Amino acid sequence: MNSIHRVVAASALGLALSLPAQHTQAGAFVHLFEWQWSDVAQECETFLGPKGYSAVQISPPQEHIQGDAWWTRYQPVSYQLQSRSGDAAAFADMVARCNAAGVDVYADAVINHTAAGSGTGTAGSSYDSGSRSYPVYSGNDFHAPCDISPSDYGNNADRVRTCQLVGLPDLDTGANYVQDTLAGYLNHLTSLGVEGIRIDAAKHMSPGDIAGILNRTNDPLYVFQEVIDLGGEAVSAAEYTGLSDVTEFRYSASLGDVFKNQKLAYLNGFGESWGFLAGADAVVFTDNHDNQRGHGAGGSNVLTYKDGSLYNLANVYMLAWPYGYPKVMSSYSFSNSDQGPPAQGVYQGGSAQCGGAWICEHRWDAIANMVEFRNVTDGTGVNQWWDNGNNQIAFSRGAKGFVAINREGNDLTRAFSTGLPDGDYRNVAGNGACVSVSNGQISLTVPAMEAAALHVNAGCDAPPPPPNDLATANFQCDNGTTTAGQSVYVTGDNATLGNWAPANAIKLEPTNYPSWTGSIELPAQSTVEWKCIKRSEQDPQAQLVWQSGANNVMQTGSAGSTTATSGSF
Question: Of 258, 263, 544, 549, whose CA–CA distance to 387 is shortest?
C-alpha cells in the first residue's frame, strides 16, 4: 500500500474502537467510472501504473438491479460479485493485476440501502422491497419506511440518517446482523486484495454505525466517506473525519466557481482558510460522477470534461496544489443525467478507445503528467506565489516543482522565481519543451488557456515521457436516418476501427441528427480507409446497412493533432 498513517477515531466518537481505516498521504487516484473489470486491469498495467496513479476507484462490484441507467449500480440486490462490469472471476483477476502494477483498488461500497421495487438482479437474485424480501435480509433489518423531505436536510439529522434516500429501503446499520453482513462483504473484497473503499451515502448513516461496521473488518483498509456538505445542514462532514477521510464537495463547488466566474488570483491559500475540512481529512475532485450530472453539490459551477481547456487547467491546479487527496474523474460521454455507459468497453482491438464515447480525462496529457508532479512534490509547501491580479498565476512547491496557469486570452510571458535547482526542465503540463532555470529564475511563455509545470524528476537529461503517437480523427456520418434500436457506427481497415467487422465498429453520437459524430484516436500520420454503417445496438448483424460507394480515405495528422473526416449514406 501507499504511505499511510492510522486514523485515531476513538476520541472523536467517544467510542473504544480500533478502526482499520487509514489515510493515504501522497499521490492521486482516478475514478474509472463504469469501466469493465477487464478494461480496468489493462489500464492499470498499461497506463495507471506507469503514470504513477496511486489507486483506481471502481464502480460498485455487488449484484444490482438490471437496467441501462448508471444509477442501477447503486441499488444492491445481493453482495455477489456480479455486476455490469463483470463477474467474480473477472473482478478477482482485475484486482490481482492492478495490485501487481502498483495500483491499489478502491471499491465503491453501497451499504446504506438496498434496491427499491421488485425484480431480478444481474446474478439472477430476486428481491422485493415491498415485502422487504432480499437474499440476505428480512423486514427486521430495515428502518421503518419514511421519506426525507427537503427541510429535513436542514434541521433533522435523524431523519436524514434513518429515512429512505430517494425511496430506497434504508438498512438498520446499527443492528448487529446488518453490521456483520456488511462487514462480511467488505472482508470478502479485502480477501481478494481490495485496499480501500468509498462509502456511498455515508451522510445517511450515523458515524457510530459506520464505526461499528468498520470495526468488524479484518484487514487494513483505506476508507473515504461520501458526505455532501456545502454548509448549513443538519449533517456535517466534520462529524465523520474521526473515522476516515471525507469527500470535500465545497472544494469542487468553489474551484469551479473561481475558474468560471472569479479570478484565479483568489486561489492563493485555497483550502482550510476557505472553510474546508483539514487537508489531511479531505478527498477532493474537480468533478465526480454525481455532480458532473447536476446531482450532489455545486450546481452549474461544477467543471466537467464539457468545459474543455478550462477543465484541464482546473485539474492541473488541483494536482499541483497541496491540499487533500485528489481524485481524477474519468468519464464517458453523456447527453442526459441518467445515461448509462457505452455498450462497448474502452479496450477494443487491444488499445484504449478514448476521446469518443469514452472521454478518459485521466489520459489527457497535462492531467496524466501532473500525477507525477503530485508525487514528486509531496511534503513541500507553496512559495514564490505570483499573480497578475486576475487570471494568471504561478507558484513553486519548495525546491521540487513550479507551475504557471494562464486562464486569459493572451500569452503570459515573464521571468519567474522558481526555487528549482539550476538546470534544464521539461514542461510536463504544456508542449514538453525544455526550459532552463538559472539562479532559480526562468523566462517562460505560457500560451492562452494553457499551463506549464516543471519538477525535479523531469529534467531534459532524462528520457522524455513516452511519445503520444496518436492523432485524433473527428468522424461525421451524414444522412444517418435510423430506426428504433439502430445506431450509426464507423469501421475501417485497422484494429482501432474494428478491421471492417461490424461487431467491433465504433458507435457515433447523434449530435445533430441525422448527422452522427465522434472523436477517435488513431495512429498518427497514417492513411485510413473507413465507412459509415448502421447496425443494431444489440446484434451487430441486425439492421446492418453499409455506406454505399468507395471507401472514405483520410490521412491522420502528426501526434496530438486533430483531423476532420466525413462520409454519408
Answer: 263
Among 63, 226, 281, 521, the one annotated catalytic: 226
Could you report the per-residue pLDDT of 95-118, keeping only the tens digit for each? 999 999 999 999 999 999 999 999
DSSP string, 428-453: TTTT--EEEEBTTEEEEEE-TTEEEE
Does residue 259 contact residue 302 with C-beta atoms inside 8 Å? no
- How do residues 174-188 score in pLDDT, each as one tens digit? 999 999 999 999 999
Q: What phi and psi values does residue 228 have, to the nearest 5 degrees?
A: -80, 115
**For 140-175, how does the pLDDT look when each residue is reduced to its tens digit (9 = 90+)?**
999 999 999 999 999 999 999 999 999 999 999 999
Measuring CA to CA, which residue among 49, 225, 234 is closest to residue 156? 234
Q: How far, in Å, CA of 450 to CA of 434, rounded?
A: 16
**Cβ atoms 205, 109 nearer than 8 A:** no
All cell numbers assigned to 89: 472471476
What is the grid cell recorded at 382?
507553496
Single out the catalytic residue among 108, 200, 239, 509: 200
Instruction: Cell numbers for 358, please give them.
Output: 469514452
Whole-structure pTM over 0.90, yes or no? no
| pLDDT tens track for 468-490 | 578 889 999 999 999 999 999 99
3-state secondary structure of 37: helix
State the Cα–Cα distance between residues 289 and 388, nearest whole angstrom: 34
Q: Band of the pLDDT at 463, cuts 50, 70, 90?
A: low
Can you list the alpha helix ranges (DSSP code H) found in 21-173? 37-43, 49-51, 88-100, 152-155, 157-162
CB 256 within 8 A of CB 303: yes
Three-state DSSP at 81 gives coil
Which grid coordinates belong to 302? 461544477
Write the CB contacts of 462 (distance below 8 Å, at least 6 apart in sequence). 426
Dihedral pair phi/psi, residue 69, rounded to 5°: -65, 150
What mean pLDDT is predicted for residues 424-438? 94
Q: Which of 119, 165, 121, 117 is nearest to 143 (CA)?
A: 165
How much is the average pLDDT of 109-138?
A: 95
Report the alpha-carbon distance of residue 302 to residue 296 in Å, rounded. Answer: 10
Burial class (CB in 10 A: 0-12, 13-18, 19+), 409: exposed
DSSP state of 113: B
Whether 158 sits among the annotated catalytic residues: the reply is: no
Q: How confident is the model at residue 25 (pLDDT cuts 50, 70, 90)?
A: low
Q: What is the DSSP letter of 286?
A: S
Q: Are 488 and 534 in contact (CB under 8 A)?
A: yes
Cβ-contact 471, 563 below 8 angstroms = yes
Contacts 24+ apart (CB under 8 A), 39-43: 39/345, 39/346, 39/347, 39/352, 40/85, 40/94, 40/98, 41/93, 41/94, 41/97, 41/98, 42/347, 42/352, 43/346, 43/347, 43/352
Residue, of 485 and 300, whose pLDDT is higher: 485
Residue 200 bears catalytic tag: yes
Torsion (CA) 273, 229, 397, 379 in degrees, nearest 10? 100
